[in-house]
Specification:
Chain A has 374 residues and is an alpha+beta fold. Helix content of chain A is 23%, strand content 36%. In chain B, helix 3 crosses helix 12. The longest helix of chain B has 32 residues. The radius of gyration of chain B is 24 Å and the shape is flat. Chain B has two domains: 68 residues, no CATH class; 205 residues, MetI-like (MetI-like fold), CATH 1.10.3720. The chains are: A alpha+beta (374), B mainly alpha (285).
Chain lengths: 374, 285
């Protein structure tokens, strides 16, 4: 049985006077279950760090409530909230060694020294910083400082662990290794964690659920798989996924037997009515302008497809990214084999109706994903 | 590291020597003067070869000034003690008041905080003589003229803005996240201020304190007007060497040597912390 670890209810954050200052977080509500790892994903300035700092207690909440394990904490001082945090800027104490910095977080818990040493050794091994425990923050690299800061947060037995860009400074191999270990560490102990990141690979790999934020608004809060397969709106669709989703503005026409989309440059995509479910057809019938989206992995090349001109063909070592000029825009497709296509060649493109995401032309809200309504 | 030729090294050495000579000469000359009698000092041409005498120091320490027209009592040692007492207490009070205030101005932006900080700075805008006349009157009404408390209070005009503005900058340079990390680990803001903010800003506080001490020590006009002989610091006390029978250059030189000694010692002592502070500032990502 799951219990709610953190509950955020209609929280607003203004920098400056309420209702007149900068509106950084807009009416945010979300519930996080005990033992879950949540990623706040978004670009810079989307409100994810503000959210984290409000949970930690470093920023006052302008409106709304935050409850931790059932008790309202948004008016409490940070010391009374029992949360641990790894800071983006590391924030180690300069006069202390790495070992002391990590052990420092346990000071308030008054554990016996032997227990503290054991815990520090364990976390240091986990984060591969055993060899620098005796050094001072000023004499180690940014990546090492970041791991020390992460260790200081993980070692604590808090109700909630907040990790602000915890692996931004690490090299890719180490990052991949630590991701797995940290996830295991958190899960094994049943800890609840919120991770702030702009790296979607990290969010996908670590998080049980991802909260995508943009402009201070929560766009979608769902599992990584659902976010990928059923993006709630055009922003989530194009923000999550690498390379990004291809999007085209289109006019839509539905009849008894066919559904067709008119794209720029006179390109027409015609499908049989049976390619879409009746519900989707009904939803499309009343509309004129929509946005079509398709993931680069889902684009097929066929002899009889819509012609497109190859602009760039890149072999990345394990997959090919082909950028083509299609319907007045760029369409990227990904293939797993090395493809010998020169720039300027013409290929036939087929957009599978089952892989099409249709969004509302004005609001960007998803209408359908393949056969299903959004 | 660029390589330097032998010629460059020589030229650099010569240039440095010239600069050092230029700045050190007055101090060395004063130091030499303090061991000479008025006659040798005033002899033309001046000479660096003389028989050193401790007469000047003796006169200062015993408080008996021998002049051509007889013996004068001077309160130099008393003045020196006054200087030490006034400067130390002023700086101590300014630190106790100014450092927490600087922290508040650096960390907590509240309505009017900039205005208050600016008002405190503006104390230094007006020339001291402008405020002295009303101040003298107020102090007479309040019975504060010619008291240590009154002088220390007026010295806050010098020390407080200096400490507040310098220390505030140091607090602002400390990453707020270091303090947040401490607070989230289960410590109150006051513990954070004591254990994190104060030690990290320590070198800055030392530098500000030192500067305030020097300014307080060198102050002349407040003490001249607001204090009488027994409360005067050395700066005012030095006027006693201008006697009816001439200016006692030897004693003045000895007095200068004695009066710069405390500040010089303090500066040499605090220098260690200043250097330490520079290396602490290097903790960056």
């Amino acid at each position: 049985m799951s219990q709610t670890a953190l509950s955020i209810k209609a929280v607003d954050k203004f920098y400056g006077p309420i209702d007149h200052g900068v509106h950084a977080v807009k009416t945010l509500s979300m519930d996080i279950q005990k033992g879950e790892i949540i990623a706040l994903l978004g670009s810079s300035g989307c409100g994810k760090t503000s959210t984290l700092r409000m949970i930690a207690g470093f920023e006052p909440v302008s409106r709304g409530t935050i409850s931790l394990g059932g008790r309202e904490v948004h008016m409490l001082a940070p010391v009374k909230r029992n949360v641990a945090m790894a800071f983006e800027g590391y924030s180690l104490y300069p006069p202390l060694t790495v070992r002391e910095n990590i052990a420092f977080a346990l000071k308030a818990s008054r554990l016996p020294q032997a227990e503290v040493d054991k815990k520090v050794a364990y976390v240091a091994k986990l984060l591969e910083i055993e060899d620098i425990l005796g050094r001072y923050p000023s004499s180690i690299s940014g990546g090492q400082q970041q791991r020390a800061s992460l260790g200081r947060a993980l070692i604590r037995d808090a109700d909630l662990h907040l990790l602000d860009e915890p692996m931004g400074q690490l090299e890719p191999q180490l990052r991949a290794l630590l991701r797995g270990r940290i996830k295991h560490f958190i899960k094994e102990r049943g800890l609840t964690a919120i991770l702030v990141t702009h790296d979607q690979t990290e969010a996908n790999a670590l998080a049980d659920r991802i909260a995508v934020m943009e402009g201070g608004v929560l766009q979608q809060f769902d599992t990584p798989q659902m976010i990928k397969e059923r993006p709630a709106n055009l922003f989530t669709g194009t923000f999550v996924g690498e390379p990004p989703m291809n999007v085209f503005e289109a006019s839509v026409e539905t009849s008894e037997s066919a559904v067709s989309f008119g794209l720029a440059g006179g390109v027409k995509l015609a499908y049989a009515a049976s390619d879409f479910s009746p519900a989707v057809r009904t939803a499309l019938a009343g509309r004129k302008n929509v946005v079509l989206g398709i993931r680069p992995y889902a684009v097929r090349r066929t002899e009889d497809g819509v012609p497109a001109r190859v602009a760039v063909n890149q072999w990345l070592g394990d997959q090919t990214h082909i950028a083509t000029d299609f319907a007045g825009a760029t369409l990227v497709l990904v293939e797993h084999d090395r493809t010998r296509l020169a720039a300027g060649e013409t290929v036939g493109i087929r957009l599978d109706p089952a892989a099409l995401h249709v969004f509302d032309g004005a609001s960007g809200k998803a209408i359908s994903h393949g056969q299903e309504l959004a | 590291m660029e390589t330097t030729s032998a010629l460059e090294k020589v030229l650099r050495g010569v240039a440095l020597t010239l600069v050092v000579l230029f700045f050190m000469f007055p101090i060395v000359w004063i130091f030499l003067m303090s061991f000479q009698t008025n006659e040798t000092i005033l002899s033309i041409p001046p000479s660096v070869i003389f028989t050193p005498t401790l007469e000047n120091y003796q006169a200062l320490i015993t408080g008996k000034l021998q002049t051509a027209s007889g013996t004068l009592d001077i309160a130099f040692m008393k003045n020196l003690l006054n200087s030490v007492f006034l400067s130390v207490s002023s700086v101590a009070i300014a630190l106790v008041l100014g450092v927490p205030a600087a922290y508040a101005f650096a960390r907590h932006k509240f309505r009017g905080s900039e205005d208050i900080a600016f008002t405190l700075l503006s104390f230094r805008f007006a020339p001291p003589l402008l405020v002295l006349l009303p101040l003298t009157q107020y102090f007479q009404w309040m019975g504060l003229s010619n008291t240590y408390i009154g002088l220390i209070w007026v010295y806050q005009l010098i020390c407080l803005p200096l400490i507040l503005w310098i220390v505030r900058g140091y607090f602002e340079d400390i990453s707020a996240d270091v303090e947040y990390a401490y607070r989230i680990a289960g410590h109150s803001w006051f513990a954070t201020f004591r254990k994190i903010a104060l030690p990290l800003a320590g070198p800055g506080i030392a530098a500000a304190g030192l500067l305030a001490f020097i300014f307080a020590w060198n102050n002349f006009v407040f003490a001249l007007v607001l204090a009488s002989a027994d409360k005067q610091p050395v700066t005012v006390g030095a006027l006693a060497f201008v006697t009816a029978s001439g200016i006692q250059y030897g004693q003045i030189a000895a007095a200068i040597v004695l009066s710069i000694t405390p500040t010089l010692a303090l500066a040499l002592y605090a220098q260690r912390y200043l250097v330490e502070g520079l290396s602490l500032g290097a903790v960056k990502g």
